[in-house]
Automatic annotation (TrEMBL):
Pfam families: GDPD (PF03009). It comes from the Bacteria. Keywords: Hydrolase. Residues 8-246 form the GP-PDE domain. SUPFAM superfamilies: PLC-like phosphodiesterases. PANTHER family: GLYCEROPHOSPHODIESTER PHOSPHODIESTERASE, CYTOPLASMIC, GLYCEROPHOSPHORYL DIESTER PHOSPHODIESTERASE. This is Glycerophosphodiester phosphodiesterase. PROSITE patterns: GP_PDE. GO terms for molecular function: glycerophosphodiester phosphodiesterase activity. One of its GO terms (biological process) is lipid metabolic process. InterPro entries: GP_PDE_dom, PLC-like_Pdiesterase_TIM-brl. The keyword Hydrolase applies.
Length: 248
């Protein structure tokens, strides 16, 4: 793991933010086309244990299918249209495997924040599988992917499988024991809903030796404020107005 923080100041949420169907290769390509150098995407395991990109626990919102995502094999998921829901020009876009998404990131020169997004009851299995796959998919890369999860169980399994890999704990609400928990999981960073952060808390977290990622920051003035407090990285849907160089 590099000893210095190798990531930029801004990353594109779900690949292409609000400008492409989330968690698809088209999204990664949209992020890159807007000049972004880092993307975030969500990874789950299919019923036959293939790691692939999807946010929700159902396929309903972001594809033309219906049902619990955990019940689909990857071949079945691959039959679904994951682009038409967003806009007609994305018709036929598929949910990519993690392997294909990683390869596309590397081709496009995109760094990655891989969010481990387990379906209920699969936290440890998903954490382990994603960590092992990430180590393999970014083998030899100058900058490793930054793994993150809202699931401490998933991150603990990831840490056990691949100890020497950067990890960040995701919090929708920052708990009182954030310092103990992030230390126990060997995290390099704390990833928080930006509304949870204020100047004093940012200073406290940084003083504990953690980097900070704030999501999902869509107001340029708020992005500048967070950066001025010492937030390292902002995750945005507004990949156009909060561009790759927006925070310098
Ligand atoms: O990792 C930041 C962000 O992606 C976390 O929330 O729900 O968009 O995955 P969500
Ligand atoms: Mg996410």
């Amino acid at each position: 793991m590099p000893t210095t923080w190798p990531y930029p100041r801004v990353l594109a949420h779900r690949g292409g933010g609000a400008l492409a169907p989330e968690n698809t290769l088209a999204a990664l390509e949209t992020g890159a086309r807007h000049g972004h150098t880092m993307v975030e995407f969500d990874v789950k395991l299919s019923a036959d244990d293939v790691a692939y990109l999807l946010h929700d626990d159902t396929v309903n919102r972001t594809s033309d299918g219906t049902g619990e995502s955990a019940e689909f094999t990857f071949a079945e998921l691959s039959e679904l249209d994951a682009g038409s829901w967003f806009a007609p020009e994305f018709a036929g876009v598929r949910m990519p495997s993690f392997a294909r998404a990683a390869a596309r990131c590397r081709e496009l020169g995109l760094l990655a924040n891989v969010e481990i997004k387990p379906n209920p009851g699969t936290d440890a299995a998903t954490g382990r599988a994603v960590a092992l796959a990430a180590a393999d998919l970014w083998s030899g890369a100058a900058v490793p992917p930054l793994l993150s999860s809202f699931s401490a169980t998933a991150l603990a399994a990831a840490a056990e499988a691949v100890p020497d890999q950067p990890r960040g704990m995701l919090y929708e609400r920052i708990p009182a024991d954030w310092k103990t928990e992030t230390a126990a999981l060997g995290c390099v960073s704390l990833h928080a809903d930006h509304s949870e952060l204020d100047e004093a808390l940012v200073a406290t977290i940084r003083a504990a030796g953690l980097r900070i990622l704030a999501y999902t920051v869509n107001d340029p003035a708020r992005a500048r404020e967070l950066a001025s407090w010492g937030v390292d990285l902002v995750c945005t849907d507004r990949i156009d107005t909060i561009g790759p160089g927006f925070l310098g």
